[in-house]
Amino acid sequence: MCAYWESSLDARQDIVVVEVPKLGKEAATKAIKEWGQPKSKITHLIFCTTSGVDMPGCDYQLTKLLGLRPSVKRFMMYQQGCFAGGTVLRLAKDLAENNKGARVLVVCSEITAVTFRGPSDTHLDSLVGQALFGDGAGALVVGSDPDTSIERPLFQLVSAAQTILPDSDGAIDGHLREVGLTFHLLKDVPGLISKNIEKSLVEAFTPIGISDWNSIFWIAHPGGPAILDQVEAKLSLKPEKMRSTRHVLSEYGNMSSACVLFILDEMRKKSLEEGKATTGEGLEWGVLFGFGPGLTVETVVLHSVPIESATQ
Q1: Is 4 contained in some domain?
Q2: 173 and 252, same domain (yes or no)
Q3: Please, which of 84, 119, 206, 310 could form a disulfide with 257 given CB 3.0 to 4.6 Å?
């Protein structure tokens, strides 16, 4: 597995097929415990991973590991990459809003064993990925009709959109081969994202009359320091806007789809610790961005919740 271009897919699969659902279970168990309701109330499950493929999938394995009802409606998302943290929230929002009483368990679980390999003098972009990526899993429960007597919403998903950036073919891609999942990243990725990000912001926030990007809180996928630096510069963001994102990147690395779930958790915990009025650093509105292969961008408009409501 450690040699750069050696056949190793079987060895990698043997690891991730077992460990990805188990890691997802750890995150899901914590989310269900904090939600505080019986797991029998979960109606839908979305499981997302870029770490391997198998049948039956991680969604099936997690259903068994958690002891969910066999009638839970499952959705398995493989090979989406780093934008998928936004994708799962978009899908969960649609499911919750179109199925009365739905409670959607969302789980993102990523293990780098499928991509890890030694360096190569001729493929330095792969080395960048090895330096950034990390293992992690995040989970949350989504519904559209909270019973506030027993449930404590943390954020509201207001709108969600997906787009492919222009002139970005081949900027980020991955290919599943006998050597595992290979990763390719062009050096102009930060520039492509920073050049196009304001268009996504304008489309998302014009309907609610917001054009000051420092007036909202930020949950941005931490693809890497260069991306964050260029987005900050392009939008003239204050350094504290990316505080939660940079903290997660420095502590855990780029965990692909799980990152934005970690950042949501970090932000609401810091907001509570610092006595902020809302789960979004005291602000009302926020944005969640996912960037990944395509180049694909997910944009989710968030509304924070008063800290009192989130902690009662």
Answers
A1: no
A2: yes
A3: 84
Residue 130, domain member (yes or no): yes
pLDDT in tens, 244-267: 999 999 999 999 999 999 999 999
Residues 176 and 134 in one domain: no
Closest CA to 278 of 303, 299, 245, 246: 303
Measured in whole angstroms, how far is the alpha carbon of residue 202 from the centre of its chain? 22
Range of the domain at 258: 156-303
> Rounded to an integer, what distance in angstroms lies between the CA atom of residue 76 and that of residue 57?
7
- Token pair, residue 61, equals 């394995």
Cis peptide bond upstream of 165, omega within 30:
no
Contact present, 169 and 186 (Cβ < 8 Å): no
- CB of 285 within 8 A of CB of 210? yes
pLDDT for 279-288, tens place per residue? 999 999 999 9
| Contact between 279 and 238 (Cβ < 8 Å) | no
* Number of separate domains in the chain: 2
Find the CATH number of the domain harbouring 270. 3.40.47.10
Residues of the chain with pLDDT > 70, as a percent, come to 99
In a domain, 291, yes or no: yes
Residue 259 sits at the vertex; the CA angle it makes with 63 and 183, to the nearest 5 degrees, is 95
SS3 per residue for 204-239: HHHHHCCCCCCCCEEEECCCCHHHHHHHHHHHCCCH
DSSP 165: P
Q: Is 2 a catalytic residue?
A: no
Q: Which residue of the set 48, 58, 82, 108 is catalytic?
A: 82
Q: How far is CA 297 from the centre of its chain?
A: 12
